[in-house]
């Protein structure tokens, strides 16, 4: 099979149909032979449709629906079951799905009333899978969070999915022998593309837990799991428990690879997991528009707090505020990440203006700010819009201060933002969830000044019982500032 065929045929193992478990959700499982039959049967019914929506519950049926749509060459629009009325109405109007695929028995909201529904069943014996379109054909339309307006539909071609998963095969030494364990939601890149389509492209297996629990992770890894995917909130719970939980520590110790993504994993949690298990969690960096850009390699040096080096086929550069490439690799100079390569999306659906604005001379402007060290490792310091604080003439990354504050024993969780200041331009604000008795504002300021430099200390500390987070565990800093 040449490279062109590999891009066109997303899941070669569905064509060889081995009697090997492909997907397991609780008590439900499908071998590749069974998945080919079930997905192939549904794909024949979907063939010729313009696009379909998938009510993306954490279920076997969601996985089958997406595989069937991809096999039919019909773009799929995964829908977050927690969508509010306004966002759902916008997505349905914008994407105009011909059909919504859903898990049987699940109630759909009023916003999908006018879209024909088809329940996904786990039966079917297709004579063969339909021919798949070429690599530039749209595969998925994933909607962004819409922080500055209505969500935008990111059109991902089949080429982007294939190349990003194959680059991760190289970086993570991912093979058909791997069994991936995770409990990520299935409506976006991390849980669906990496967590379901990734194992299927490799010819491996995935065990989805439905809901995250440290006990579930320990059991699945102890029963043959070799890899785990999670977000920082999951790894924070693991870090909190693993030192006093020999069963969890042993299960993690036996895994081949632990991967964290979707947000930065605090260095303190890295350290606690490593101390208890000997494992060093791998971080990677991607976006809906770019899929995966960088990763710490399985065979490379682990540097907690970094997202590794560019993946095979990905070009990455840092640029200053004028858009001039930054050539230094001193680990200190901050620039915006821009990328180009076959992993990129095609367009924002129905938004040629936004698509054009997102690129500069062929480079996608991520809006993420980072530094690069002498080994080429990228360290994300925050979003250009919310995580770069310009205070007293300095450009300061919020992530560095957050990691420092998390080293204080009285800090459980923290987010750092900037707010207007007549003297400094912006002052640094720390939003702290305390661990026990709250420390004083001065204690935290002195702690940061000692670990970093005085100009990076928080000028204001606000205590909260919890940080506002989205479904992937990312802190919603705009909600804090509001």
UniProtKB/TrEMBL annotation:
Belongs to the ATP-dependent AMP-binding enzyme family. It comes from Prauserella flavalba. Gene3D superfamilies: 3.30.300.30, N-terminal domain of ligase-like. InterPro entries: AMP-bd_C (IPR025110), AMP-bd_C_sf (IPR045851), AMP-binding_CS (IPR020845), AMP-dep_synth/lig_dom (IPR000873), ANL_N_sf (IPR042099). Residues 400-474 form the AMP-binding enzyme C-terminal domain. This is Acyl-CoA synthetase. GO terms for biological process: fatty acid metabolic process. GO terms for molecular function: medium-chain fatty acid-CoA ligase activity. Pfam families: AMP-binding (PF00501), AMP-binding_C (PF13193). Residues 15-349 form the AMP-dependent synthetase/ligase domain. It comes from the Bacteria.
């Amino acid at each position: 099979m040449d490279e062109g065929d590999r891009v066109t045929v997303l899941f070669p193992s569905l064509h060889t149909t081995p009697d090997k478990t492909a997907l397991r959700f609780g008590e439900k499982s499908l071998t590749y032979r069974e998945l080919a039959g079930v997905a192939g049967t549904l794909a024949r019914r979907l063939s010729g449709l313009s696009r379909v929506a998938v009510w993306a519950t954490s279920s076997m049926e969601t996985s089958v629906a997406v595989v069937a749509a991809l096999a039919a060459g019909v773009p799929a629009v995964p829908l977050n079951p927690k969508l509010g009325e306004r966002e759902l109405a916008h997505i349905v109007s914008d994407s105009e799905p011909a059909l919504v695929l859903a898990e049987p028995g699940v109630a759909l909201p009023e916003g999908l009333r006018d879209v024909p529904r088809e329940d996904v069943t786990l039966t079917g014996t297709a004579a063969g899978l339909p021919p798949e379109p070429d690599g530039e054909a749209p595969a998925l339309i994933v909607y962004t969070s819409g922080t500055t307006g209505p969500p935008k539909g990111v059109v991902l071609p089949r080429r982007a999915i294939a190349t990003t998963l194959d680059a991760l095969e190289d970086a993570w030494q991912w093979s058909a022998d791997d069994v991936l364990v995770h409990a990520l939601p299935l409506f976006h890149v991390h849980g669906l593309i990496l967590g379901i389509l990734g194992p299927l492209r490799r010819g491996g297996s995935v065990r989805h837990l439905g809901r995250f629990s440290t006990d579930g992770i320990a059991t699945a890894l102890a029963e043959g799991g070799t890899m785990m995917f999670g977000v920082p909130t999951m790894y924070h719970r693991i870090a909190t428990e693993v030192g006093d939980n020999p069963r969890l520590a042993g299960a993690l110790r036996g895994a081949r690879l632990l991967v964290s993504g979707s947000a930065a994993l605090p260095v303190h949690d890295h350290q606690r997991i490593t101390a208890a298990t000997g494992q060093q969690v791998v971080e990677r960096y991607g976006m809906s528009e770019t899929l995966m850009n960088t990763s710490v390699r399985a065979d490379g040096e682990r540097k907690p707090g970094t997202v590794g080096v560019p993946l095979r086929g990905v070009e990455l550069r840092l640029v200053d505020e004028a858009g001039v490439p930054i050539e230094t690799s001193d680990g200190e100079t901050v620039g915006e990440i821009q990328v180009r390569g076959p992993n990129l999306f095609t367009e924002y659906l129905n938004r040629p203006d936004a698509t054009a604005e997102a690129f500069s001379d062929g480079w996608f402007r991520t809006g993420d700010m980072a530094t690069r060290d002498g080994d080429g490792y990228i360290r994300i310091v925050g979003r250009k819009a919310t995580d770069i604080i310009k205070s007293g003439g300095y450009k300061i990354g919020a992530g560095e201060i957050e990691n420092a504050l998390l080293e204080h024993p009285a800090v459980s969780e923290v987010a750092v933002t900037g707010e207007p200041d007549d003297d400094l331009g912006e002052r640094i604000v720390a939003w702290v969830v305390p661990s026990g008795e709250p420390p004083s504002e001065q204690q935290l300021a002195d702690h940061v000044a000692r670990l970093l430099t005085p100009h990076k200390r928080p000028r204001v500390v606000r205590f909260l019982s919890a940080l506002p987070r989205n479904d992937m565990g990312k802190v919603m800093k705009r909600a804090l500032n509001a």
